[in-house]
C-alpha cells in the first residue's frame, strides 16, 4: 500500500470512530480514486440471468461440516502478484466451491495481517458474477483486503440461493452458517488474514444469510453488511419466506447468545422483491442485540444524493462513546439490486450510492474484540 493511500485509510478510520462520517467517506473515496489507475480486480463480466432474482426458491439443503480446502492450481488466475483462486471445501463426499481474491503483496499495510470480506451472492449468481457486479475486488486491491466468495451448490438449492429460510440453516454449529464460518476461519489462517478483521456481506438471499452468520458467529465476524436482505428468523419455510418478502417480518430474538457485530444495511424503498421493511427489521434487531453493551445510542440522519442522482437517507446509530454500531442506508426509488455496482454483473444499480465502498469504509473502522 502506498504511503498516501495508507494515510488516507488511517484518516478515514479515525474519522469514522469519531462519528465524522461524511469526512470519512470523502477520505476513503480519495483513497480509492488514487488507486484506480492500477486496474480493476479480477473477475469475469456476467450477463444478467433471465430467471427472477428471488432469495427463496426451493431446493433440498445439503448440510456440510468440517472444511478441508483444496486449491486447484489449474483454475488460479493472476494479475501482477494479485491472485484469483478457484478452490473447494470437501464435506461428507460433497463440495462447496469458492473463489478467493488475494490483493498484491505490495498492498499489504503494516502489520502484515490483512482484513478479509466474505461475500455471499444472491440467487442465480456465482462468484464471478458477484465480483464483477459489486466491484469489490477492484476496491479491495489497493486497500490490501482479501475477498472470499463462497458459492452455493445447485444440489443444495436449485437456484443457488443460500437457504436462509430453513431452520437447519439458522443456527450456530449447523448447516450453512457452520460451513461458512469454518471456511472463513480456514482461509484466514492460510492466507495471513487478521482474525479480528473478518467481515461478511451479502445481497438478497446472501444478505439474509450474512445476517444469520453474523448473529450466530459474533466471535468470527467483526461486522456485517446486508444489501436487500431479510432478518434472521424471518421465515421457516418457503411459504413464510414469500410472506416475509412481500410484507416484511420482524427478526427473531438473537440466536448468538451475545451482541450482534456492527451492522450496515442497504435497502431500496422501491424493492418489489424484498419489502423495504425487512431492512428496517435488520437494523432494529442489531440495535436491540447491542442494547446491553452499547450504552444509550444516538442517531444521526443525513439526506444525500449519489453522483448518479439517486437519493438516499443515511441513519447512523452510535453508542455513548460516539462509535458507530449500526448504519442504515434507505435508497429512495431503488429496486432489488446492488447499489453503485457495475453493469458487468447481474442485479446492479450503477446510478446508486457506492455500497461496496461504503461497506469497506464501515468494515475497516471495526475490529472484533478478543
How do the helices and strands line up, and which of them pair or pack?
Layout: H1 3-17, H2 21-35, E1 69-71, E2 77-79, E3 82-91, E4 94-102, E5 114-120, H3 127-134, H4 136-141, E6 146-150, H5 175-190, E7 193-203, H6 205-216, E8 223-227, H7 238-247, E9 263-268, H8 277-289, E10 298-305, E11 311-318, E12 324-331, E13 338-339, E14 348-349, H9 355-363
Parallel strand pairs: 5-6, 5-7, 7-8, 8-9, 9-12, 13-14
Antiparallel strand pairs: 1-3, 2-3, 3-4, 4-6, 10-11, 11-12
Helix pairs in contact: 1-2, 5-6
Summary?
The chain is an alpha/beta fold and 370 residues long. Helix content is 28%, strand content 24%.
Report on the structure:
The chain has 370 residues and is of the alpha/beta class. It has one domain (3-363): Alpha/Beta hydrolase fold, catalytic domain (Rossmann fold, 3-Layer(aba) Sandwich). It is 28% helix and 24% strand. It has helices at residues 3-17, 21-35, 127-134, 136-141, 175-190, 205-216, 238-247, 277-289, 355-363, and strands at residues 69-71, 77-79, 82-91, 94-102, 114-120, 146-150, 193-203, 223-227, 263-268, 298-305, 311-318, 324-331, 338-339, 348-349. The strands form two sheets. Strands 1, 2, 3, 4, 5, 6, 7, 8, 9, 10, 11 and 12 form a twelve-stranded mixed sheet that branches. A hairpin with a 2-residue loop joins strand 2 (77-79) and strand 3 (82-91). Helix 5 (175-190) packs across helix 6 (205-216). The longest helix has 16 residues, at 175-190. It starts with a helix and ends in a 7-residue tail after the last helix. The model is unreliable at 1-6, 31-53 and 56-76 (pLDDT under 50).
Amino acid at each position: 500500500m502506498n504511503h498516501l493511500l495508507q494515510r488516507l485509510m488511517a484518516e478515514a478510520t479515525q474519522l469514522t470512530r469519531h462519528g465524522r462520517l461524511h469526512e470519512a467517506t470523502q477520505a476513503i473515496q480519495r483513497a480509492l480514486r488514487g488507486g484506480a489507475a492500477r486496474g480493476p480486480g479480477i473477475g469475469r463480466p456476467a450477463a444478467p440471468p433471465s430467471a427472477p432474482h428471488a432469495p427463496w426458491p426451493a431446493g433440498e439443503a445439503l448440510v456440510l461440516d468440517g472444511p478441508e480446502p483444496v486449491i486447484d492450481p489449474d483454475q488460479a488466475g493472476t494479475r501482477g502478484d494479485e491472485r484469483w483462486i478457484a478452490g473447494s471445501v470437501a464435506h461428507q463426499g460433497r463440495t462447496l466451491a469458492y473463489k478467493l481474491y488475494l490483493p498484491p503483496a505490495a498492498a499489504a499495510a503494516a502489520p502484515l495481517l490483512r482484513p478479509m470480506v466474505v461475500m455471499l451472492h444472491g440467487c442465480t449468481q456465482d462468484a464471478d458474477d458477484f465480483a464483477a457486479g459489486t466491484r469489490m475486488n477492484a476496491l479491495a486491491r489497493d486497500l490490501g483486503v482479501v475477498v472470499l466468495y463462497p458459492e452455493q451448490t445447485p444440489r443444495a438449492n436449485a437456484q443457488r440461493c443460500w437457504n436462509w429460510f430453513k431452520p437447519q440453516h439458522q443456527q450456530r454449529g449447523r448447516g450453512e452458517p457452520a460451513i461458512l464460518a469454518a471456511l472463513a476461519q480456514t482461509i484466514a489462517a492460510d492466507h495471513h488474514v487478521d482474525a479480528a478483521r473478518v467481515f461478511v456481506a451479502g445481497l438478497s438471499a446472501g444478505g439474509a444469510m450474512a445476517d444469520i452468520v453474523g448473529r450466530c458467529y459474533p466471535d468470527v465476524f467483526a461486522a456485517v453488511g446486508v444489501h436487500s436482505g431479510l432478518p434472521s428468523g424471518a421465515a421457516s419455510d418457503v411459504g413464510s419466506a414469500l410472506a416475509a418478502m412481500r410484507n416484511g417480518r420482524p427478526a427473531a430474538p438473537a440466536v448468538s447468545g451475545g451482541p450482534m457485530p456492527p451492522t450496515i444495511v442497504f435497502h431500496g424503498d422501491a424493492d418489489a422483491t424484498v419489502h423495504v421493511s425487512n431492512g428496517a427489521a435488520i437494523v432494529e434487531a442489531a440495535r436491540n442485540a447491542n442494547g446491553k453493551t452499547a450504552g444509550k445510542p444516538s442517531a444521526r440522519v443525513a439526506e444525500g444524493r449519489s453522483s448518479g442522482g439517486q437519493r438516499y437517507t443515511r441513519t447512523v446509530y452510535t453508542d455513548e462513546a460516539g462509535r458507530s454500531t449500526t448504519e442504515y442506508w434507505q435508497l429512495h426509488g431503488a429496486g432489488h439490486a446492488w447499489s453503485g455496482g457495475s453493469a458487468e454483473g447481474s442485479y446492479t444499480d450503477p446510478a446508486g450510492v457506492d455500497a461496496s465502498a461504503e461497506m469497506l469504509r464501515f468494515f475497516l473502522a471495526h475490529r472484533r474484540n478478543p
